[in-house]
Amino acid sequence: MPEGVCEGTDLLVRDGLITRISLSDSDANSSNPTPADAVLDLEGLTLYPGFIDVHVHGSVGVDTMEAEASDLGRVSRFLATQGVTGWLPTLVPAPGADYAHAINAIDAAVPEEAEEQAGSLRSQVGARVLGVHYEGPFVNSAKCGALRNEFFKTYSGPGDIDGLPLPSFNGAARMITLAPEIEGGVELVRELTSRDWVVSIGHTRATFELLDRAFEAGARHMTHFMNAMTPLHHRSPGPVGWGLARDHVTCDFIADGIHLDPHMLQLLFKLKGANRLTLISDAITAAGQGDGDYQIWGETIVVKDRHTSNANGSIAGSVISMRDAVLMMRSLGVSEVDLARMASANPARLLGLDRECGTIEEGKRADLVALDASGAARLTFVGGQLAFSDLPTSG
Fold this sequence. Notes:
By secondary structure, the chain is α/β, with parallel strands linked by helices. Helices cover 27% and strands 23% of the residues. The strands form 5 sheets. Strands 4, 7, 8, 9, 10, 11, 12, 13 and 14 form a 9-stranded parallel beta sheet that branches.
C-alpha cells in the first residue's frame, strides 16, 4: 500500500472496485463477516497494485504496428500473466496508413475488453489497453536506435499533429516521445501539451538549455532514460545530466540489466528516487517467444540470451516484461513499496489515471497482482475480474 506493507489484510472487491481494506483478524470481521461470492486465500503471497506498462511494441509474436484487435487481445492476456493490468500499445515511425491501421485495431480491441470484463469472476480477461504511445516520428535521426529514420519528421504546424490518429474511446491516454531539438521542436511540445498529450523526451541530443525550454513548454518526462540519447559528459551534461539534475522531471527506464548495467540502475535509483522513476518493458514482438530471428519494422532483429540487435548492432527493444523489471530492481535491494511506486503508481500518475488505479486503496479499481516469494505471478485481477490464476483449485 502507499504507506507501507500491510500483513494479514483482507480486501473486499465489489463491482470492480476495492470497497474495503481491513485486518483479517479484527474483531469486527470475525463477528460480522461480509458476505462474498468468492473468497481467495493469498497466504504466502504479496499483493501489489497491477503493473502499468507505458511502452510496449508487442509480445508473443504480435507487433502493435501490424496487429488486429484479436492480436492485441492476445498480448493483453499474456501481459496479465506477467502482472500487467494496463498498457499502452507503442507505435514506431511509419507511413500514415500504418498508423491508421494500428489505431483502428486499438479502438476495435477496447470494446472486446469491456465485453469480456462484464462476465463472471472466472472470465479470462487481459490487461487494459489504455490508449496509445507514439515513439516518434518527431525524433533525432542521429539517435534513431532501431527506429526507421526515413519516416522521421520535423514540425511546421498543427497539421503535423493532426496526422497522428488517436483512439476514439473515452479516456484514452495519448503519449508521445519526441526530440525537442528538431525543427520546431519546442513549439511542438507546446502545441501537444495544449492538446493534453503526455510529452516525453527521447531519441535526443538536445542541450541542457534547450531542454529547459522544452520543460517550460510542457515536457516533463523522459523515455527509456540514458538509452537513445547523448551520454553524460563532464563538459556537456546533455539530456542525461539534465534528467538527473531536474527534480521535477520524471524518467522511465528499462531494467533488464542490458539496456542499463545493474550498477547504473542502482545509481539511477539513488539519484532520482522511486517517486520520479517509472519502469517500462519496451517489449517487442519476440517477448515471450525465446531466441531467434524476427522480422520487425522492416528488418531482421536477432534475439539471443535476452539481447536484441538489428543489422546495425543497435539494441532493438527488449524481451522482458514488467514483472522481469520489478524482479531486477528487487534483486538490487529496492523495497516492495518502492517497486509498487515505479511499476504502478508512477505510470498511473504519468497518464493522469492515478485517481482510478495505480495503488491499493479503497475506491480504486481492483487491478491487482499477487507474486510468490520467487517473484512468479500467481494471480492477476483487472477491474475485479480474474485475468490470470496459477493458484491451486479446490473442490
